[in-house]
Amino acid sequence: MKDLHELPKLRDSLSYVYVEHALVERDNHAIQLIDQNGRVRVPAAALSVLLLGPGTNITHGAMKVLAENGCSVVWVGEEGMRCYAHGLGETRKAYHVLKQAALASDAQSRARVVRRMYQKRFDVELEPGLSLPQIRGLEGVRVRKAYAEASQTYGVAWEGRRYDFKSWNSSDPVNRALSAANALLNGICHAAIVSGGYSPAIGFIHTGRQLSFVYDIADLYKTEITIPIAFQTVAESSQGVDKRVRQACREKFREVKLLERILPDIDELLEVKGMDREGEEWIDPQQENPLPLWEALYDEAEVEK
Predict the structure, then answer these.
(1) Cβ atoms 59, 70 nearer than 8 A
(2) Phi and psi, residue 83, nearest 5°
(3) With contact defined as beta carbons under 8 Å apart, do 233 and 245 qualify?
(4) Short-list 60, 15, 33, 5, CA closest to 260
(5) CB-based burial of residue 143 (10 Å sphere; 0-12 exposed, 13-18 middle, 19+ buried)?
(6) pLDDT tens digits for 190-231?
(7) Quick one: 34 exposed, middle or buried, by C-beta within 10 A (0-12, 13-18, 19+)?
(8) Which end of the chain is less congested by CB atoms within 10 angstroms, N or C?
(9) Contact in structure between 87 and 73 (CB atoms under 8 Å)
(10) How much is the average pLDDT of 7-12?
(11) Do the Cβ atoms of 278 and 13 come closer than 8 Å?
(12) What radius of gyration do the chain's Cα atoms show?
């Protein structure tokens, strides 16, 4: 285990550490990461997100000091490829989720976010006045084109996106490869979203599901990453597709530094760059005592009487 003189960054203001096959203990006001190679001390106050991968154990004391210092803890799969659960950090700083909810709740601001998502994904500006169903239709056309181009590039037959999650083996190899690759992509996007204090459920293009925003963000990278990898994997061999495409995705995610890109991309889409994280307008200055709100309601009730 290397000495952590400088923590890696999800973005400039968000430090994170990924740990696997190790024990996480408390060390005074810090945490200590212990594995077969030794011990590394990490200051909890300087850490925003701790990603716990496979084979990790964490003590009650470590969780307590992380909570006291406002550090989020996310239980993830290998290299962050799944997001299983998460514990919130400084929940009083809810500026990201409040901004997200405000944008998604207003028709005009939601449409602006959808347009930025489409432009970022396909590098094409949309014509003004298009409805959400029309944008979804244009998106479908471009995705089908991406499948057709990948089929031609890698020489893999393509008969359309077909899969049944209840009968995995009934799908052809390339559809299974796409499903496995997209599951990994969803997992790493999910981990980044909860680490950044956003809600996985509040989507803009996708709605009504607990992972709607995860699907929105994962879609940004499919034509760039998972579609080519899935077709290339099947072109090499139709045997052991599931395992091989997962390995290829992990390598590609590291190569393109996907985990470092996701949160800055989200901030750009939702226009939250430059927001003051300490004095932000979304933060209620009355941190612990909500009485003024209720007193105001009581006063209005008295006036009505």
Answers:
(1) no
(2) -120, 110
(3) yes
(4) 15
(5) middle
(6) 888 887 889 999 999 999 998 999 999 999 999 999 999 999
(7) middle
(8) C
(9) yes
(10) 56
(11) no
(12) 22
Contacts of 228 (CB under 8 A, 6+ apart): 150, 153, 154
Spatial distance between the Cα atoms of 24 and 266, rounded to a whole number of angstroms:
30
Cβ-contact 224, 252 below 8 angstroms: no
Q: At 167, which amino acid appears? A: S
Nearest to 117 by CA among 267, 10, 223, 217: 217
Mark 186-201 as b/e (b = at least 16 C-beta within 10 Å): bbbbbbbbbbbbbbbb
* Cα(60)–Cα(66) distance, integer angstroms: 10
What's the CA angle centered on 160, arms 155 and 166, to 5 degrees? 115
In the numeric block, which tokens belong to residue 178?
């796409």
Residue-wise burial string across 247-284, b where 16 or more C-beta atoms lie within 10 A, e elsewhere: ebbbebbeeeebbebbbbbbbebbebeebeeeeeeebe
The SS3 of residue 79 is helix
Identify the pLDDT of residue 32.
93
Name the band, by pLDDT with cuts 50, 70 and 90, for residue 298: low
Give the integer Cα–Cα distance in Å for 284 and 274.
19
Q: Do residues 45 and 90 make contact, with C-beta atoms less than 8 angstroms apart? A: no
**Number of neighbours of residue 27 by Cβ within 10 angstroms:** 17
Question: Could you tell me the end-to-end alpha-carbon distance of the chain, in angstroms, rounded to an integer?
Answer: 69
Q: Give the alpha-carbon dihedral of 23, 28, 31, 36, to 10 degrees.
A: -40
List, in sequence order, every beta strand (DSSP E) within the chain: 9-11, 14-19, 23-27, 30-35, 38-43, 49-52, 57-58, 72-76, 83-87
